[in-house]
Design goal:
The protein is an alpha/beta fold and about 250 residues long. The protein has one domain: 3-Layer(aba) Sandwich (Rossmann fold), CATH 3.40.50.150. It is built from 10 helices and 10 strands. Strands 4-3-2-5-6-10-7 form a 7-stranded mixed beta sheet, sandwiched between helices. It has a 3-stranded antiparallel beta sheet with strand order 1-8-9. Helix 4 links the parallel strand 3 and strand 4. It is globular, with a radius of gyration of 19 Å.
Amino acid sequence: MTPKRSFEDLVAEAMAAPVEGWDFSWLDGRATEERPSWGYQRLMSRRLANVSAALDIHTGGGEVLAGVEKFPPTMAATESWPPNAALASRRLHPRGVVVIETRDEPPLPFADEAFDLVISRHPIAVWWTEIARLLRSGGTYFAQHPGPATVSELITQIVGPQPQLWALYEPAAQRAQAESAGMQIVDMRMERLRAEFYDIGAVIYFLRKLIWTVPDFTAKPYYVRLRELHEQIEANGSFVTHPTRVLVEARKP
């Protein structure tokens, strides 16, 4: 029988693990997460195959975009975290994608009405006015956003409830933000999913990787609460929480 690893050992391992890119293989056997039924990458690929110019905002390490079979003649991607931007460049440049490291705020370094399609998967913030500026008339924004109260059980355990922040991700709030920027919502749907963590190291890695969950997360300020959660997992075998995702398709008139 494999001996149980100490809290300190699990914390140290998870804090030392590299978190650049959008590869979650480190969590294999340590956590599971249900995926939305709509299949964002497949739907995104269909749209990319039928436009002349597209932009992926917050591409991460380019993993999702790299899974696309056919790119439009003009394909660009932006990323604000330098390690991810470097990873995305290495992955996407050979396929003709221009990857630009940007600040984590608008404006982006592109001309007005430069793109037929703007895409984004799990953006930290949605810059609706900037998206509207970049799209040509009749152009589309297609994205998968974090939803309201995503992994709320986990966030509550670590930092307490965040109702004001969660409200910003409500579909009605997202719709209002889009419409105020002059965009028309074509499709918006939400799913509540299930995630399960089998050790505290997996929780810490997840929080470091998904930076919108607990901004600027490091283990030290939350040591007491993380230890409490570790003890819960030891007693119950796992910790269950519920991610939410919102699929968004919006059109510029």
